[in-house]
């Protein structure tokens, strides 16, 4: 596999425009396939699941197929009751009518302010104006407080044919996934059965999107959806676990999900640095993931890293609050490859040099729990003054 310039896989079209939901920025887009595609999704676990998210989940679970997705920013259509459900279904029907396909092949996604109704006249006009082009405007139309689109494309082979997998997402605040708390979309022209695609997505999201945190809040709306239309290998059989190309497909899928997850963490609201936590020597994969996410999600750790304060005790405290198995007298800790603790004993190190390194835009914290062989990673960002500024005036 190799990373390539961002592009749409064979048979996919996309467009985005300004429909009036926002003052000036693009706010509506769609993604369409020439043919029905195998589809899979993972969804927010927030109890107040938004109408578009619930509708897309229901749609995919009915047949593991989609042919189009329509997405808007600015208004979340969340906590909008029966009217919100009707509005989401109306979007689905409008797109289906325009494309001449069944509404059961259309997914709907929204992001933005909770508790406001969609301006359906504007949305209807916007959907009518969307075109079957191959531009990248949808990657901008889904953004809220993000500073830039997050995109990635890989080229790989299936059955001797070149395939492309492309992913894009939005996410900057309200990021603390328990399933997939942002909007993320992955499309490919490889051929994969929908149920296998669902199994892969559900499995791989655990070590990618579920291992990021920005602010500890799980949104009401968000999801990750993937579509595989098979047009690059139209005459070949669908991928199975026994296929020769299965492992490569799995590796590409994981690379796309992990890249997008890290980009969300890097672009956290007000963030100045990406923080990665690597936990080794854990009793189980679950312990490793929990420990890593506890450290990267600690507001005290995040604030210390913003201030370039080598206050490693906050890392210890965050670890100790978890229920993971820790050899408390054998713990190893390093920050930016500088050993802080070995066997729970403080090491001599250049504090001024380490403090200076915390000014970099990427920080690595490594922990060895010495209770097993499992490893896990998590990604987040620092906590800055700008985060408060952004969220104190979010609706304006």
Short description:
With 396 residues, the chain is an alpha+beta fold. It is 31% helix and 26% strand.
Model description:
The chain is of the alpha+beta class and 396 residues long. The protein has 2 domains: 2-266, L-amino peptidase D-ALA esterase/amidase; 274-392, Ubiquitin-like (UB roll). Helices cover 31% and strands 26% of the residues. It has 11 helices and 15 strands. The protein has helices at 51-63, 81-99, 120-129, 138-141, 194-204, 246-266, 285-297, 299-306, 313-320, 351-357, 385-392; strands spanning 2-4, 12-17, 28-43, 65-72, 106-110, 150-158, 161-170, 183-188, 223-228, 274-282, 332-335, 338-342, 345-346, 362-368, 374-381. Strands 1, 2, 3, 4, 5, 6, 7, 8 and 9 form a 9-stranded mixed sheet that branches. The chain has a 6-stranded mixed sheet with strand order 13-12-11-14-10-15, with helices on both faces. Helix 2 (81-99) packs parallel to helix 3 (120-129) and helix 7 packs across helix 9. The longest helix is centred in the middle third of the chain and has 21 residues, at 246-266. Residues 177-181 have low confidence and may be disordered.
């Amino acid at each position: 596999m190799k990373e390539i310039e961002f592009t749409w896989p064979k048979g996919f079209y996309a467009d985005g425009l300004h429909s009036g939901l926002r003052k000036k920025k693009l706010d509506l887009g769609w993604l369409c396939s020439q043919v029905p595609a195998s589809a899979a999704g993972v969804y927010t676990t927030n109890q107040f699941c938004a109408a578009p998210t619930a509708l897309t989940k229901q749609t995919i679970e009915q047949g593991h197929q989609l042919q189009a997705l329509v997405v808007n920013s600015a208004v979340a259509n969340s906590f909008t009751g029966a009217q919100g459900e009707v509005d989401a279904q109306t979007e689905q029907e409008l797109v289906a009518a325009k494309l001449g396909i069944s509404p059961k092949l259309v997914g709907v996604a929204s992001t933005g302010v909770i508790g406001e109704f969609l301006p359906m006249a504007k949305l209807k006009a916007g959907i009518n104006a969307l075109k079957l082009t191959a531009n990248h405007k949808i990657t901008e139309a889904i953004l809220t407080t993000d500073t830039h689109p997050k995109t990635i494309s890989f080229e790989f082979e299936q059955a001797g044919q070149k395939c492309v997998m492309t992913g894009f997402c939005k996410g900057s605040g309200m990021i603390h996934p328990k399933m997939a708390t942002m909007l993320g979309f992955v499309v490919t022209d490889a051929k994969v059965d929908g149920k296998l695609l669902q199994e892969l997505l559900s499995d791989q999201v655990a070590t990618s999107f579920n291992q990021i945190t920005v602010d500890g809040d799980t949104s009401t709306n968000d999801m990750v959806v993937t579509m595989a239309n098979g047009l690059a290998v139209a005459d070949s059989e669908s991928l199975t676990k026994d296929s020769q190309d299965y492992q490569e497909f799995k590796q590409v899928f994981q690379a796309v999900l992990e890249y997008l997850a890290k980009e969300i963490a890097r672009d956290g609201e007000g963030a100045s640095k990406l923080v990665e936590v690597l936990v080794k020597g854990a009793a189980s994969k679950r312990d490793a993931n929990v420990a890593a996410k506890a450290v990267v999600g600690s507001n005290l750790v995040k604030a210390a890293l913003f201030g370039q304060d080598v206050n490693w005790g906050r890392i210890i405290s965050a670890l100790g609050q978890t229920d993971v198995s820790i050899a408390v007298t054998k713990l190893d800790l390093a920050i930016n490859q500088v050993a802080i603790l070995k066997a729970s004993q403080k090491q001599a190190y250049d504090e001024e040099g380490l403090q200076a390194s915390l000014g970099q835009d990427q920080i690595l914290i490594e922990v060895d729990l010495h209770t097993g062989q499992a490893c896990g990673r998590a990604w987040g960002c620092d906590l800055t003054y700008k985060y408060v500024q952004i969220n104190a005036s979010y609706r304006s």
